[in-house]
């Protein structure tokens, strides 16, 4: 049997990271996780092990700590690629604690790139965000849509990281090839309900807030504004199932390893369709049979009225296409929430 190619996954115990680890292993790779568990919980590793019927190697450390991180490269021989998820991602917190975000998000990428150069690891998939587009002038956004001044330090860290990768690509060393994936809004959970989104404290994202409200953990859900220039007045986003998103990373690695890529390539990863907040609520109620207690509140500072992706480039060059629907995502998110409740009751 062909030996599995070893892929380092930073932030591999997080929401997207854990799903990517599952897809990588199922596609024939050998993932190795690096995570400091600041934004994740060790139970995710148990979930991954249950799905794969195998324990995945995991190093508990901070990727911005050069000496600690270097030990992984010393120990794990023949790493052929890295997927870099590890980052802080709460927009509001980034406004009040910008230095924390620059140190972690930008610092960890610089350390990673230095180590990849030192240990001659040629392939990187970088976790970027549609945040870099700001409030776009035209929809859908393509990869050529201008990147605007970021609305938050979090968004700015993603822009700076992309600039660093661009400068490295232009430097002509040719030692690292990168594919940056600009995610739209990941939602849902694995069909097994063994892994899913596990926000620490009050969720920042819509879907876990919906599921927690339906489960009675939150008293009510607030829709931030219904007076936007959209068909029903609520914000529109491109919600992509996390399992589809995880598969995009496998496609990106395949492309890097085939050598068909340029030194830096950027792809939007979304469905190509927008759904409004009120549509998401209606869909959730329909597919789960749960009535939601929600109210209309004021607009939230920094929210983009409407954004969704053009996915033509990802389809044509990466061969990536989403397979799961918003209904699938919301059903799986609710199953995951129910599983969490069950585990707490039996714990």
UniProtKB/TrEMBL annotation:
Residue ranges annotated for the NAD-dependent epimerase/dehydratase domain, each copy included: 7-270
InterPro entries cross-referenced by the UniProt entry: Epimerase_deHydtase, NAD(P)-bd_dom_sf, UDP_G4E
Any one GO biological process: galactose metabolic process
Pathway it works in: Carbohydrate metabolism; galactose metabolism
UniProt keyword Aminoacyl-tRNA synthetase present: no
Alphabetical keyword list: Carbohydrate metabolism, Galactose metabolism, Isomerase, NAD
Gene3D superfamilies from the UniProt entry: NAD(P)-binding Rossmann-like Domain, UDP-galactose 4-epimerase, domain 1
Cofactor(s) needed by this chain: NAD(+)
UniProt enzyme class: isomerase
SUPFAM superfamilies: NAD(P)-binding Rossmann-fold domains
Family: Belongs to the NAD(P)-dependent epimerase/dehydratase family.
Protein name as it appears in the record: UDP-glucose 4-epimerase
Gene: galE
